[in-house]
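Exercise 3.2. Students should predict the tertiary structure of the chain below and write it as structure tokens, then compare their answer with the key that follows.

Predict this chain's 3D structure.
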Amino acid sequence: MLKYLLTAILIIHGLIHLMGFMKAFGFSEVPQITEQIGKLQGVLWLSVTILFVLSSILYVTENRNWWILCGIGVVLSQILIFGTWQSAKYGMILNLIILFPVIAHFGLWNFENKYINDFKESLDKVSAQKPDLLTEQDIRKLPAPVQKYLHYTGVVNKAKLNSIKVVLKADERER
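Answer key:
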């Protein structure tokens, strides 16, 4: 439900930015915007429309980097709003609403990257270590069936495992 609400907000807010583009290029009288908008500003208004609509498409299609385009759109939108404050000040509310999930996804992205870097660092450290051999001395205190199993599998007098990789897969489901 929230996914579709955010998508709708992104699209609506993006389409509202079309008004600035239309006014700048004289495609339409836009009485809602009382300030003058130059051609360069008009191109920026159109750019924000494209950024918001594109980021909503990426969000719906579950592209994990949607928040980057959306964050750029929020910053540009806010700059444009400051330039036309009297007419567009309420757009800041939508920018704040959009900013919350953008910040949350940035936090997730940052956490994931730190985790991956830490994992690679740890794996490099483990890989650089010279592996010890699993000897009879190592398994002598284990129960006889375990010792027999280790001999049967052929791991005795072979390199000890010093790391494993576990991959978990899960489906995210809406409730």
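Discussion points: The mean pLDDT is 90. The first helix runs from residue 2 to 16.
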